[in-house]
Specification:
The radius of gyration is 17 Å and the shape is globular. It has helices at residues 12-22, 41-46, 65-75, 87-107, 112-126, 138-154; strands spanning 2-6, 27-30, 54-57, 60-63. It is 43% helix and 9% strand. A 4-stranded mixed sheet has the order 2-1-3-4, covered by helices on one side. By secondary structure, it is α+β, with helices and mostly antiparallel strands. Helix 1 crosses helix 6 (138-154) and helix 4 (87-107) runs parallel beside helix 6 (138-154).
Length: 189
């Protein structure tokens, strides 16, 4: 049994998306930062750091978005969210996941201008590719979540939005847009 402890608007969204993409049943346990629920003794007994997301796997906690996404993708290869057959693609996935966690995630805390510069680098790195790798993966889920959070929290001018969240980008989930081999299109905002 899987239980996901999450907070709306947080990095938990990426794990939530992956659970739905895979089609796994799970118990959703929302927590409120505003009410201090991640600091309550009951949650701290599960995750002493008081961080979300936390995924309980048969009662055992797994934390950190990248680790949880990796676990889900590897545990459920039928979902094709991890490039099992290509070590270079695996290394690229790890590279992107590390970049997302260490560079993109903290960028918005340093203000709009800094975030725009950092996200422009990610935008350039992605280029015109519809996916981070050659197909939809956990790296796309993680990247989408942060681009979505960036646009929703800092409210950059519409023309400054990174490619994955630009409404005019043809592969941004619009009908006829880019799809992976399983027929999934990029999520719409």
């Amino acid at each position: 049994m899987l239980t996901l402890y999450f907070a709306p608007g947080s990095s938990s969204m990426a794990v939530h998306i992956a659970l739905h993409e895979i089609g796994l049943p799970f118990e959703a346990r929302p927590l409120s930062f505003a009410k201090g629920e991640t600091r309550e003794p009951a949650f701290l007994a599960i995750n002493p750091q008081g961080k979300v997301p936390t995924l309980l796997i048969d009662g055992r906690p797994l934390t950190e978005t990248a680790a949880i996404l990796y676990y889900l993708a590897r545990r459920h290869p039928e979902a094709a969210l991890w490039p099992d057959d290509d070590i270079e693609a695996q290394a690229q996935a790890v590279s992107w996941m590390s970049y997302i966690a260490s560079t993109l995630h903290p960028a918005r805390r340093l203000g709009l201008q800094h975030a725009l510069e950092v996200y422009a680098g990610a935008d350039q790195r992605l280029g015109e590719q519809p996916w981070v790798l050659s197909r939809y993966s956990i790296a796309d889920i993680h990247l989408f979540r942060l681009f979505w959070r960036f646009s929703g929290s800092l409210h950059p001018p519409r023309g400054d939005l990174p490619q994955p969240v630009r409404p005019s980008r043809p592969d941004a989930g619009a009908p006829g847009g880019a799809k992976d081999p399983a027929g999934r299109s990029r999520p719409r905002l």
